[in-house]
């Protein structure tokens, strides 16, 4: 097995075929509703304090469940209770299926615990796989948060007239908030510990986006 740091970098690589390029972190729905380029940094901050914090906490709880041999299904239930929008749940499960197809070929032992949770969310799948690969809790939370920031920023370049260097600056500016998220979720060990933070406007945009047939991104 490769060093966990290298495996974390691999999982964070946008070139990995895990459907990340099909996602915008609901940015496309927000842009359709009138969100402009100047609003994207605040959108990133809002996600990191809300949606992404739930995702990171879920991944940490799933990692711990695999290590402690407790039911992963309880983590999935807790995630679903905190993820109100059906469109967000659906998109997450599509991403999880793609991740599991990859892991079944590359790291089958790490993916094995997910057989007990058909239709798992991406956060649960990622947490379970991280446990099997020896990725630590902080590295996992950092991976979830960084991936979310990059997903939104990569989508922004396709949806809005932007300078790529300026968008890279947005990523850099978001990194301290990524570390805040890591600190905030560090103590998550049980399903009940997963943060319950809702962002109703993002959920509304996600639902509206799911209904349109004219879009670039799955979600």
Automatic annotation (TrEMBL):
Membrane-spanning residues where?
none
UniProt entry keywords in alphabetical sequence: Chaperone, Nickel insertion
A GO molecular function assigned to this protein is:
nickel cation binding
Q: Name one Pfam family in it.
A: UreF
Q: Which domain of life is it from?
A: Bacteria
Q: What is this protein called?
A: Urease accessory protein
Q: Species name for this entry?
A: Nocardioides aromaticivorans
Give the classification, highest ranks. Bacteria, Bacillati, Actinomycetota, Actinomycetes, Propionibacteriales
